[in-house]
Amino acid sequence: MEHTEVGIQCSVLADINYQYELECVALSRDRVAQCYLLLGHCTSQSYGVSRSIQVPLGVAGTGNYSFEVDVALLRRRYELVKQVLPAGAVPLGLMLVNSGCYNYDEVVEQSFLLNKLGLEAELELLLKYEPGQVDGGEELRLECLLRDPASIPLAFNRVLHKVVDSVTNVAMPQRDASNLQAQEAKEQHASALDQFVQSNEQEDQLAQGLLRRVDRMVEFLQSERDAPPTHYDEDYEAVLRKVSLLVSQLELGGTEDIENEVLSMENELKVLQIACNQWEMATPR
C-alpha cells in the first residue's frame, strides 16, 4: 500500500505548541524534549492526522543519553483517549520534537522496530518538528517521513505533507501554520480582555447601585432634618456621619499609588454597602 501525502490538522499542531510552551515555562528552559503519538485515518493514498497523545519519556539505561517510552503509562493514556476517538481512527506514527537536539534512537526502536508499545496498528509515520517562536515569522519546521516496508534495516522516506484546517479541511498556508502560537496568544488575550471588561461592568453596576442607595438615604435624612423628630435618634445620626465620611472619601481624586487607591476604594465600597444594609434594616418602611 502506497501513501503519498500526509495531512495534519492545525488543531494538532496548536495543541502540541501549547503543551510545548507550557513545559518550557514550567522548566524555565528554551527548549525541551517531547514525543507525541499521532492518531487518525489512512487511505490508499494519504494519511490524516487528527489527534495526538503526549508520550511519557524516561531516560534510557543504555548510557547514550537517549530516551525511552514509559509503555505502561502510554497505554493508560491511549485507552482513555481511545474511548472518544472517531470510528476508524488508529495510531499512525510518532512526532519527535527538537530531534536535532535530543537522542530519540531508543524511542524509535521501541516503537517501530520492536513494536513494544502494543498498539493494534503498526506505526508508519515519523514526524520531526521544531516549534518556532511566536513572533518569529518563520516557516513551519516540520519534516514528514514514511517507513519503508521493503527495507530490512529500519529506514524512512520523506513524503509530502500539508497542514489542513480542522473544520473545513481546507489546506492552509504553511507560513500561517507557523503562527498558530501567535493566534492562540491573541485569542487568550481577547478572552482575558473580555473577562476584564465584564468584571469592570459588574463593579460599575455595584457602584451605581450603591450610589442610588446613598441618594435615598440622603433624601430621607434631609427630609428628617426639614421636619426634625422630637427626640434625638442616635442610629440616624451615626449612619449620616458614616455616609458623609465615605462619600467625601469617594469624591477624592486619584493618588500616585493607583493600586493602593483602588484597593482602598474597594474596601470603602464594602463598608458603604454594609452601612446601607444597616440603614435599610433600621429605617421604618
Summarize the structure.
This protein is of the alpha/beta class and 285 residues long. Helix content is 46%, strand content 20%. The chain has two domains: 5-178, Cytidine Deaminase, domain 2; 188-282, no CATH class.
Supply database-style keywords.
single chain, alpha/beta, nine-stranded mixed β-sheet, two-stranded antiparallel ribbon, 7 helices, 20% strand, Csi1 protein
Mass-distribution shape: rod-shaped
What is the strand arrangement across the widest sheet?
9-8-7-6-2-3-1-10-11
How is the CATH topology of the largest domain named?
Cytidine Deaminase, domain 2
Number of domains: 2
Tally the helices: what do you get? 7
Rg on CA atoms, Å? 32 Å
Mean pLDDT: 75
Biggest β-sheet description: 9 strands, mixed
Helix content: 40-55%
Helix-strand sequence: EHEEEEHEHEEEEEHHHH
Descriptive account of the structure:
With 285 residues, the chain is of the alpha/beta class. It folds into 2 domains: 5-178, 3-Layer(aba) Sandwich (Cytidine Deaminase, domain 2); 188-282, no CATH class. 46% of the residues lie in helices and 20% in strands. The chain has 7 helices and 11 strands. It has helices at 10-27, 71-82, 105-113, 174-177, 180-226, 234-250, 258-282, and strands at residues 5-9, 34-42, 46-54, 57-59, 67-69, 90-97, 125-129, 142-147, 156-158, 160-164, 171-172. The strands form 2 sheets. It has a 9-stranded mixed sheet. α3 links the parallel β6 (90-97) and β7. α5 (180-226) packs across α7 and α6 (234-250) packs antiparallel against α7 (258-282). The longest helix has 47 residues, at 180-226. The chain starts with a strand and ends with a helix. It comes from Maudiozyma humilis (Sour dough yeast). This is Csi1 protein.
